[in-house]
Design a protein that fits this description.
The complex is a heterodimer. Helices cover about 20% and strands about 20% of the residues of chain A. In chain A, helix 7 links the parallel strand 21 and strand 22. Chain A has an eight-stranded parallel beta barrel. In chain A, strands 1, 2, 3, 4, 7 and 8 form a six-stranded antiparallel sheet that branches. A five-stranded antiparallel sheet of chain A has the order 6-5-9-13-12, with no helix packed on it. The N and C termini of chain A lie far apart (about 70 Å). Chain A is of the alpha+beta class. Chain B is about 45% helix and about 25% strand. Chain B is built from four helices and five strands, in the order E-E-H-E-H-E-H-E-H. Chain B has a five-stranded mixed sheet with strand order 1-2-3-4-5, sandwiched between helices. In chain B, strand 4, helix 3 and strand 5 form a beta-alpha-beta unit. In chain B, helix 1 runs parallel beside helix 2. The longest helix of chain B is centred in the middle third of the chain and has 16 residues. Classes of the chains: A alpha+beta, B alpha/beta. At the A-B interface, helix 4 of A face helix 2 and helix 3 of B.
């Protein structure tokens, strides 16, 4: 056999009946090699390292092997151990070194540490299964089979301007009893809802954190309800390479990797991309009072930003800050994303509090952050979407100025705020709305409209429904006296705080949701909706539901019937966007006619055609996109006219004339009852009066010229 | 775990009893290879298998890939509901035809 002639097929050392030899320094982590497993781990300051081996689930290790000094290369310890059972093995490390927090060292060899490069973590195998708090090693590194049969799948590489992103939580999506699935709350359950996602019309799911985290972290009894407060959202990573076992129906068999890959494959088959919400700004180890899980016991000074006194800088608002621009940590982030792109076929990443990734090792913002640059130019990530949440909890706000290297897009928080204020009826917004619908050229002039990820609601803050049902946040159930969560919601309850039987108010709320969805889908850039907003989901006014494993976060599927009009509208407005390339430009409008059609690519109007009113008291704006300029004039589309009226009174809007032979047709009128509020693409009725249109109070009208 | 290989009308049947996990999977794999050397149409009878781990599922997929490369066919017989669930959740099931009884398996493999 060919493998027999390899020298490293044979052990050279033996301890406690375990055979081993010097290993390979790269790759880091635990890798299957002929006859054994190669272990490799970095620490710049440890003076000694021991590999600890467990049989799966056992309380005590079956072996502990100290790395002989000659097995260390530079700052990397590596060894090949023979005859281990890949599937039953759990491993960890003990690192010896100084415990001097004031100097940044927190070594403690009594603690068994998780491998930062482990590909799966055992110990939290089923969601909320009660942990054994006395476990000497609670988050156990495991190996996974990396032989998944992808058949012919690969990342979809959908042009970013064609995406409609659906932000969702793995468990929240199907955990509600009304979801009617076999394994609620899991990757597998999402797979059984792929038809729903496809039918809705989205083509990219953005999964809230799925890296292994611990829902028990900071868990406590809820003082208001008596229930349990947990880390539901999962913005607190235990390990960056491992999918959350508790999100897999097969987590208890250790098969979460296969289950997640199967979901990705199935979504891809249906034309739906998968984007991950990744949290590289901090870890689950918390501040100086937190638990030692991995990084802080392996190399605290490398992995974290520390104050001169040895405390943790806290730009994340969660206790610590990962030292992302340290070259070693930067490589770990790169290795991680490459692994997810190559091995899981992930299409893109949304970086939580990404402004942190641009800070130097002392926390100061860098003008040319090496990590962001590396990600932008990485060969393996070359076709992945990179999306920044371009701010952090340390006050760095970079919307419009995030170091993009021609690659990065941003969650456009300014878009969210402007649209919210406009819909509410605030004055002085018309100029900003013009920016919103153009993909905000003032912010992204050099980057194009696709740098702008447009959204009005996301997991953080009010749902779209609550935006029009609550003036104030109602976070009492979080147990923090309603002090948590943002206060700048720009919401309006339409007259009554919370639920009401008043049919006028309920109709107005539905109309406002339709207005929001309409403006979002006709804006240049990349629209994103929050899972459940398509059926008018409510969180009862709670704008920070991070800690609730209950109806506040579980999508109630019966809303599909209760709010059937919203669902129908959402579905059709997404189809409308998909049908019209003129809505999905890669480049900014030039405000001129460069194809000789007689019309500029975009023109602005008010209640009088050609005369937009940008004055502070105006609440009206209309615009027309010339179909001959679609995709920079390379294809022909219909012309589209959109009239937005945030005034409470109905107003006549004078329509701009179309070229001879073309007529205006009605696609959307949010002022009308369901059935007449939106028409199927191709079945829009022709307007009798081609000269003007009565746009209702707080309503949006979309016309198609053809 | 015990594996028996029998020939039924030009079809090779590999019958397994006991659990298939990382300890027993190598033996299952060896027997599967013996069976594949004999025939390119194989039925794997799992009626008496109560538990199959990730390693066991991988042997099944190895057999499938091997047989397919020889343009043969493979059928699984008597797979418990629990194992079918795991296979379905992790995507393995899409590769296989599953029938209830050995005679159904033989009949399936004899079709053109």
């Amino acid at each position: 056999m060919a493998t027999d002639i390899r020298i490293d097929y044979y052990p050279t050392h033996e301890q406690q009946g375990i055979k081993f030899r010097r290993g390979h320094a790269l790759p880091f982590g635990a890798t299957m090699v002929p006859n054994g497993i190669n272990f490799s781990i970095y620490s710049s300051e440890a003076i000694d390292c021991t590999l600890v081996l467990f049989e799966r689930g056992e309380a005590e290790p079956f072996a502990e092997i100290r790395f002989p000094e000659e097995f260390r290369t530079g700052n990397v310890y590596s060894m090949i151990v023979f005859d281990l059972d890949y599937e039953r093995l759990e491993y960890g490390y003990r690192m010896d070194g100084p415990f001097k927090p004031e100097e940044g060292h927190r070594f403690d060899k009594s603690i068994i540490l998780s491998d930062p490069y482990a590909k799966a973590i055992g110990g939290r195998d089923s969601w909320l299964a009660k942990p054994n708090w006395d476990n000497i090693y609670p988050y156990r590194s495991r190996l996974v089979f990396e032989d998944f049969d992808w058949e012919n799948d690969h990342p979809l590489e959908t042009p970013i301007e064609d995406l409609v992103i659906y932000e969702m939580h793995v468990r929240g999506f199907t955990q509600h009893p009304s979801s009617n699935v076999k394994n609620p709350g899991t990757f597998a359950a999402i797979r059984s809802k792929v038809a729903y996602l496809k039918d809705l019309g989205i083509n990219c799911v953005e999964l809230m954190p799925i890296y292994e985290f611990d829902e028990w972290e900071n868990s406590k009894e809820n003082p208001v309800t008596g229930g349990l407060i947990v880390n539901f959202w999962g913005y607190s990573t235990v390990n960056f390479f491992s999918p959350k076992a508790g999100y897999a129906a097969t987590g208890k068999f250790g098969m979460q990797v296969d289950e997640l890959k199967t979901l990705v494959k199935e979504l891809h088959k249906n034309g739906i991309e998968v984007m991950l919400d990744v949290v590289f700004n901090h870890t689950a180890e918390g501040d100086h009072r937190g638990h030692t899980i991995s990084f802080r016991g392996i190399d605290n000074k490398t992995y974290y930003m520390l104050t001169p006194e040895g405390y943790y800088f806290n730009f994340s608002g969660t206790g610590n800050t990962l030292n992302c621009n340290n070259p070693v940590v930067r490589n770990m982030v790169l290795d991680c994303l490459r692994y997810w792109a190559a091995d899981y076929h992930i299409d893109g990443f949304r970086f939580d509090l990404a402004a942190i990734l641009g800070r130097d090792q002392n926390g100061a913002p860098l003008s040319n952050p090496p990590l962001l640059e590396s990600l932008a130019y990485d060969p393996i990530l070359a076709k992945c979407k990179l999306v920044a949440e371009a701010w952090d909890a340390g006050g760095l706000y970079q919307v419009g100025s995030f170091p993009a290297y021609g690659r990065w897009a941003e969650w456009n928080g300014k878009y969210r705020d402007s649209i919210r204020k406009f819909l509410k009826g605030d004055e002085g917004l018309v100029g900003e709305i013009a920016q919103c619908i153009q993909g905000w050229p003032d912010l992204y002039y050099y980057r194009g409209p696709t740098a702008s990820i447009n959204f009005i609601a996301c997991h953080d803050g009010f749902t779209l429904y609550d935006l029009f049902a609550y003036n104030e946040k109602h976070n009492e159930a979080n147990g923090e006296n309603n002090n948590d969560g943002g206060n700048d919601n720009h919401s309006w309850n339409c007259g009554v705080e919370g639920e009401t039987d008043d049919s006028y108010i309920n109709q107005l709320r539905h109309k406002q949701i339709k207005n929001a969805l309409s403006i979002l889908m006709v804006s240049q850039g990349v629209p994103m909706i929050l899972s459940g907003d398509e059926v008018g989901v409510t969180k009862s006014g709670n704008n920070n539901t991070y800690c609730h494993d209950n109806e506040l976060n579980w999508l109630d599927w019966s809303l599909m019937e209760k709010n059937a009009d919203i669902y129908r509208f959402a579905q059709h407005i997404m189809r409308f966007r998909r049908a019209h390339p003129v809505l999905r430009s890669r480049t900014h409008f030039q405000h001129k006619d460069y194809v000789g059609s007689g019309f500029a690519d975009i023109t602005f109007h008010g209640t009088q055609a050609w005369q937009p009113d940008f004055s502070p008291s105006s609440r009206c704006l209309a615009f027309m996109l010339d179909g001959a300029h679609a995709k920079s004039g390379t294809i022909r589309d219909d012309s589209i006219y959109v009239a937005m009226n945030s005034h409470w009174d109905a107003l006549y809007y004078e329509l701009p004339p179309l070229p001879a032979g073309q007529k205006w047709h009605l696609a959307v009128n949010t002022d009308m009852p369901t059935g007449e509020d939106i028409y199927e693409v191709g079945k829009e009725p022709r307007l009798e009066d081609q000269g003007r249109f009565l746009v209702g109070g707080r309503a949006t009208v979309i016309l198609v010229g053809k | 775990m015990k594996v028996t290989i029998t020939d039924q009308e030009e079809i090779t049947v590999v019958a397994v009893s006991g659990d298939i996990d990382s300890k027993t999977a190598p033996e299952f794999e060896r027997n599967a290879k013996v069976a594949m050397d004999k025939s390119k149409n194989i039925a794997i009878d799992l009626t008496d298998v109560g538990f199959m781990s990730s390693a066991g599922l991988r042997v099944l997929l190895m057999v499938y890939r091997n047989i397919r490369s020889q343009e043969g066919k493979v059928v699984l017989v008597g797979v418990s509901e629990e194992i079918q669930d795991v296979m379905s959740t992790t995507g393995f099931i899409n590769f296989f035809t599953i029938v209830e009884k050995p005679e159904d398996g033989v009949a399936f493999l004899k079709q053109d």
